[in-house]
Every structure is written in C-alpha cells, then in structure tokens.
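Q: For a teaching handout, I want to show students what a protein-ligand complex looks like in token form. Below are the inputs, and the small molecule is magnesium ion. Please produce the holo structure.
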Amino acid sequence: MLKALPEKVKIVEVGPRDGLQNEKTIVSTQDKIKFILLLAKAGLKSIEATSFVRHDKIPQMTDSKEVMLALQKENQFKNLHLPCLVPNLKGLEIANSSGAKEIAVFSSTSDTFNKKNINATVEESLERLDPVIEEALNLGMKVRGYISTVFGCPYEGKTKSLEKLKKVLSFYLDKGVYEVSLGDTIGHGNPLEVTSVLRELRKDFDIKSLAMHMHDTRGMALANILASLEMGITVFDSSAGGLGGCPYAKGASGNCATEELVYLFESMGISTGINLSELIKASSFILDKVKKEGPSKFFMAYKKENNS
Ligand code: MG
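A: Here is the structure, written as tokens, with magnesium ion included.
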C-alpha cells in the first residue's frame, strides 16, 4: 500500500467560500478578509475567496465584491490564486469588475441535484457554462471546474455516473478549464470506489488535471484522500477548521478540515508548504466568528495539547 507517493501536494482552501456559505452565522466583510489573509500567512496559495451568486439565495456571500476589492489592496494579493465561484454570465461580469483573476464553475453528475440546485439538468448547465468559460478565458482569467455528486447524490443516492462524469469532465477540459475538482458531495464514497473511478478516468484523462473535494460526512474523507493520492492525485480541496458543515444533513461534517489534511501529508513526509501553527490561528479565528468548536479533530487535539 501507498507506493510511489509524491514529494508535494497542493491544497486548495475552500473555507472562505464553500465553508462560510454553509454556515448559519454571517461573518463580517472585515473578518472574511482577515481570515483569507491568515490563510495566506499560513502558506495557502490557492484560496477560494467568495462567490458571485444571487444574494437572496446565498446571503452569506452578499459582500463578494467588497471582499475582492479589499483583497487587491493587500501585498500578498499578487501571489495568491483567489478563485471566485460564478454560476452564470452575470456573475462573471461582477467578478471581473471586482478584479477577480480566476473563477470556479460548477455542475454535477446528477440531474436531480442540478435541478434542485440551479434549476437545470446537467446538460442544460453545461450549455449555460459554455459562454461563461469562453468569456472568462477571453478576459484572461483562469477557470477551475467542480463536478459534484461523483460518489453519490443526496436525492438519487449512489449513482452509476461514470458515463456522465466523463462527459462533464471532457466538456470542462475541452473548453480550457485548467483543473477539475471531483466532489464527494455527501461523503458517500469509500477508498475502493475512489480507486476504481480514478482508474477509469486515468484511461482517458490526465490525472494531473484533477483534484479531489472530499467531504467527511461519514468520516471517510482522509481514507478517500489517501486512495486518491495513491492513484496519482496531488491536488485536494479542504476547509480550515472543517468549516461548512453538510448542507444536506444538519449538524454533520462537510468539508474535510485543512489542518487534518496538512497533518496527514506532512507527517508522512509529503510537503504542503503550509505552516500548521499558523493555519490553526486562521481556523481558530474563523471558528470563533461562526461560534463553533468542531468538527476538526486535529484542531481540538491541538487546542487541548497547547492549553489554548
Ligand atoms: Mg464542499
């Protein structure tokens, strides 16, 4: 087990967007900016900063424009990748006028999930994204893609979605998306499934263009991440402090905690470029703001050991 591991991996921090979007408490603009800067100080280079979505649907992201404009005044800004989630051309327009240099777009492998989420089938969502990606690339932006429900859907359950997955993935890569993140939206996957899906994808796609976005809803995130690592994946999404919860199961864990991921890799001699104690400061700061202690086990252990 675990042969030929990479020397380093890249962690994409999704806390400020995917995390905060799924928290009940709305964090102030100033605190969001401070959180992102603390993450950057810890060594994170790619931080999903916000989303340009409808404010009535996602009130947590109402200040997306202010956040992006304020970040550009910071010294570290030029060295950071700050993708912003964009659902359509309108969102892209605002992202562009806010100075965003990178966007993230999303679809899934489940028509039911897509219908409930954005009122479009998978096919329709790709038609909608087509001009968004094209325009973003014309504007000189980088585009990252998400595919949700890869290992199961909250409405359809375990989906036999390999064909659809390949279709969405081909669409993204053919359009010029530089990295596609495969999401286990409700933490349904297990290491054998992850291995088998990635083994299939490796036949047709470059594994280096893929990232994994594993959720810890059933405590499987790190196991699934290790399985992905062994299949050649070196990019992983996670959220400081495990911020975000699970939008489909109240009180359950959602995003994998960044500190757990960093500890896993660094303790095995795989470099992440992230300073754990600085990262804990970022997690501590934001968990305090959303008035939560968990669900990151590493965070709780660290606090206990350091009496803080
Ligand atoms: Mg997530």
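A: Two things your students might notice: The chain has one domain: 10-305. The longest helix spans residues 122-138.
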